[in-house]
């Protein structure tokens, strides 16, 4: 029972920290895509974020997430030393970039979600105008 509680506490703490890390990027991205979508072209709001906002706030973060998972940079190599005595396993990342890209995942997810939330809110506002 203690192991389950420890595992759930660790997972909950990690989730809370990741939400806190991604939330500012969600707000920033949402405001940017909202402003871009309501930019007037020929006297009418565009209704969808522009190309630059789409590239920077949706496509590039999506490519970084895809690169992280497809390339396997975040994989751990678990080595069991054969010393004849009880020793702990050694975990090493396959690449030095693994931990850094792992830290970039929450901001990337926040930017993608914020982009779509801002675009949806701007589209609803355009329909009301």
Automatic annotation (TrEMBL):
Transmembrane segments: 6-28, 48-70, 101-122
Keyword Transmembrane helix: yes
Keywords linked to the UniProt accession: Membrane, Transmembrane, Transmembrane helix
Keyword Membrane assigned: yes
Highest rank taxon of the organism: Bacteria
Protein name: Uncharacterized protein
